[in-house]
Amino acid sequence: IPPLKYILSSQKGAWLQGLFTLLVLGNEKLLPTETMIDMIAASPSIATDRTKREQLEKRLHALVTSSRDYIPPSWDEEFQKSFGWPDSVGKFHYQALKSRAFLFTAEQYARIIIEEYRMPHHKKTIKPVPIGGVAGGEKFIVGGILFKFPENKPMYEGLANAMKAAGHELRGLNAYSNAKIPGLRVPLSAVIDYRGFRITAIAYLPWISKDTLVYGSADGGKTVLSSDAKCNEMMKAAAVHLWSKEHLVGPKPGVRLAAAVDIEVHKHPDGSFYVLDCARAFPPEYPAHPRFMNSVWFNMLRPEYLRKLQRRLNSDAFTTFAKTDPKCEAMNGAVKQASAFLVKSILNHYGYLLEMDYSKKGKKMFLGIPDFLPRSMHRYGLNMRHCGLVRRRLHAPVLRDLVLLEIVARTCKGMIRDRLRRSAQIKEVTILRMLNEMIGHYWEPQSEPENERFLKKAEVPNYVQYESNAVCWTQYWKINVLTNHFNDALSGDELKYDYRLIDHVD
């Protein structure tokens, strides 16, 4: 019975999370109250007692396989009810357990969906469902969860950008949740990365249909709704927090929205409203070159920058959706100005402050601080794609090397993800081969059984020197990868053939 059979077969302590899942989801038909209490009482000693753990797993397996009353959980209904409870430790503990159970269950299903990615649909354990939508990719519904598997669409110009858009959806949902508009809800959701792929998991809302849509568009802007006065006021209030500007979209004369046209707001039978499809909740950044205009679908301005800017911008800027509004050009110009101000003024100011802090504190300003550079840049509204531009504005060699290290690490991450997506090998072997290329050692596995023996540490392979890592650091990464992903990351001297980047990231 999915997902419980996968939970029971999980390793590395996942059985305890599986236990939480059962406790949170269990109803009295599947897990009687007495059984749940016994499990809770036994759980502290299970972690150190293998015999007790095995006994519990057998007991859970018997309960699950003998039950005919298992119903996929209604994740959202139960979670939303908890917000009406008085604040207490019990309330927050329940919400934490519920969120943990949702994430763990979503991870198990996402793993199956990704591992069966290349299979024909009729052979898949979890089959895609035709529920509409293009930008979100393939859809799967299982275990009370809706999964969106991003695909390489022409608008994204690459799967990596489609995955970036999936991450934006989670940020958009968080933004609407943090607006704290009474009656405006967002479902439980998570983003899961596995084997170089990314999947968005959202609590399935079975009551949603075309008839429940009251705001936004479900068909790419062909039909745009703004039919509920109460919902309209809520979205206007939320737009103030998101710094989103109202504008006309859809067929003329147009419909006025305070969000991107492809957002969806559905009315629940209890009168509340659910916000979905928030990948473009924030306005796009104007591209550095006209040939990169498709980047408006996945390169967004950060909310931290919008709060500093104190200016409401159009989320549909530079798209065909916005052409309905007679003020389209003016709103596009506002986004273009905001993007230019970010790249020129904010970047220069950030570089100056970074140099000043380093002159006062030295390496103490970043040593021992996890993710110092990402946190610092995000605080000023800068995206990590601006690392190259930040580095060009720095003069201290230590700071330049710090940013270069971040650039190389992110480049390596992207390359590993790409290789994982293309490779059928065990993922650990793919990663090790990549790292060996970086450090100058290379090991070519002879067969799949040898991969398995290596991972089980039954034998240690003999590494041989991989001389062509000089080519990796002087040519391939430097010219074809670093400069393509991070604008102006390297100086003229660093682009020379005999310049080794590894000497500055060691």
Describe this structure in words.
Strand 1 and strand 2 form a beta hairpin. The longest helix has 34 residues, at 328-361. The protein starts with a helix and ends in a 21-residue tail after the last helix. Strands 3-11-10-6-7 form a five-stranded mixed sheet, covered by helices on one side. Helix 2 (14-25) crosses helix 6 and helix 3 (33-46) packs antiparallel against helix 4 (50-66). The protein has 16 helices and 13 strands. Helices cover 47% and strands 10% of the residues.
- Treating each run of at least 4 consecutive H or I residues as one helix, how many helices? 16
* Ends distance: 49 Å
What is the residue-averaged pLDDT? Answer: 78
Low-confidence spans = 1-17, 20-44, 64-71, 442-468
Topology pattern, helix = H, strand = E: HHHHHHEEHEEEEEHEEEEHHHHHHEHEH
- Structural class of the secondary structure composition? alpha+beta
Q: What is the beta-strand fraction?
A: 5-15%
Largest sheet: 5 strands, mixed
Radius of gyration, taken over Cα atoms and rounded to an integer in Å = 25 Å
Shape assignment: globular
Q: Residue share in helices?
A: 40-55%
What order do the strands of the largest sheet run in, or round the barrel if closed? 3-11-10-6-7
Report the count of strand segments: 13
